[in-house]
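Write out the 3D structure for:
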Amino acid sequence: MQVFKRSDRSPIAEWWRTVDKGLIAAALILLGAGMVLSLAAGPAAANKLRLDDPFYFVYRQAFFVTMASGVLIGASLLGPVWARRVCGILFVLCFLLMAGLLVFGHEAKGARRWLYLWGTTFQPSEIVKPALVVMTAWLLAQREKFPAGPWAPIAFAFYAATVGLLLLQPDVGQAALLTAAFIIVFFVTGLPWLWATGFVIGGSLLGTGLYFLLPHVRFRINSFINPDANDTFQIDVARMAIERGGMFGVGPGEGRVKRILPDAHTDFIYSVAGEEFGLILLALLTLLFAVISIKGVMDASRQKDMYRRAAGVGLYAIFGLQAAVNMAVNLSLIPPKGMTLPLVSSGGSSLLGSALTLGLALALTRRQPESSLSHIAHLRHA
């Protein structure tokens, strides 16, 4: 069915003709799945926190799912130039907020990652991730036009400062995810051997240092390597919940994991889905994440413009990697990371950050109409 006439050159019509509607549909299905799973896990979470309203997290999820849908569509409407400008503004604002968190941030479980605003919490690092990926891609792409510029050191300085703030919170999981995205963008734009060697050596030294300096990192790694000698309660319960669910699940509302684990509606929502709805739903969720990530990376890799190619690959990669980490933790394949399942887990910052990541990726990999190529070429130099 033709929604817009071919003669219609409005921004909305051009967006509809050029955006990948299949990936948008997949993202909206994930948001819908998150809404359904919030009905399963939300009341139990509210009960553990002794909230008066058992549907507090359900209403909260519905509000942020609506906002995330708007962010996803709105970000996908942006052109390459405006995507970079918006990300520059968001990066500066959220970077300053991350710095401020060290002084006035809301502390939970020994970490200062959240800003307490209007009765809820906001995690600036969720917005910083996609913003830094886009900025890094644009800076490194400038090496094609201006080879003599210090683009790589500037990009690395932004990355190092951001990771430094993450480690001070501390948030090792987000720092590792951002590092992976940064290296991917660097690789796509042409990673020199000197930089590659530096990343390998620096990453090894930093990882070793974090193991000895941060007790919770050392505990999680030791528990994973030697589970018999350490407490592995959370990941054991999560894995057993999936095993208990079997192929078709024990039925909506009949799960146990959500009543036992404190973060079942966020970090362990994948286990809730497996226990109550079975392996069929887990396979569907995994397939949706795989389709979005793999097709997105393939679409981005075909872009002729270096900035759009690198940013698109980096954004789709960080989306897919975060999903893979969360699912691997729930399956006891890697140590616990405290990382949400994109677009599915409960949490406003996570939903908005994931929607922004995917929306920017869709914007930068949209097909370019032939009639607007000359106009876009002019805008790139703006």
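The chain has one domain: 17-366.
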